[in-house]
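Lab notebook page, bench 4
Experiment: in silico fold of construct C2
Operator: M.H.
Input chain length: 281 residues
Purpose: comparison with the prior construct
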Amino acid sequence: MAPLGEQLVDQLRGTVDKLEARVAELEARLQGKAQSLSSSKPTSDDMRIILMGPPGAGKGTQAPKIKEKYNVCHLATGDMLRAQVAKKTELGRQAKKIMDQGGLVSDEIMIGMIKSELENNSECKSGFILDGFPRTVAQAERLDAMLKARQQSLKHAVELRIDDELLVSRITGRLVHPASGRSYHKIFNPPQKTMTDDITGEPLVQRADDNEATLKKRLATYHDQTSPVIHYYQKTNIWRGIDASQEPGAVWKNILGVFEQGGNGNIPASASLLQKIGLQK
């Protein structure tokens, strides 16, 4: 075969250079589209959540999953109070004085504790799950005002809903590992060895207030306090109800459905549940 002329070689090189430039351009466009799609997805900063539900509804099971998946902090009212008291902060000293006298910690102190966590807890930079607060409409309004001052707002108010009688059977059989908070159930989720934590081998306990009489009082108080709060968040269109009588995996999938739909989609529920929560006549 005769050798290629220099002119033809130059032409081929020019063609190859153009093709390489075209490929580089296409790759850059694809990368730009991928980044655009990525940036359009909800970020964890959008995950400012209130998780509501009566004692035993499953908040302690679902909140850690939300925290892990979205890298947000879990602000449980009782834990915050204990932490502030242990650290001997000004808010902690005020709260301890009130609790020692048998009083209820004021809304102002609770809002101050939440604000302190949002400002000082690095886990809260990406969002938060608020558990156990607000319990009244006044608290909800104070929370909204505090967030507005931070140029933020709540994104989701998720309520775990379950029949009171089912809760009684759940709670009265609950066993707890005090050190870790791991929970078991005598019937539904028994430990491998009776009254023994599966992981540490340490003893499990049944809390003194995990009895039918105490629970029914707590449930009555919960319903009286939170019904107005639920209506408050329903008006803002961030409330969604989840049927918490399902097994935990199904509840988790429904919660994910709320977040993936940006809080704009209803979670499927039975007609009886819809009637109970006043969304169907």
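Observations: The chain has a mean pLDDT of 82. The radius of gyration is 27 Å.
Next step: discuss at group meeting.
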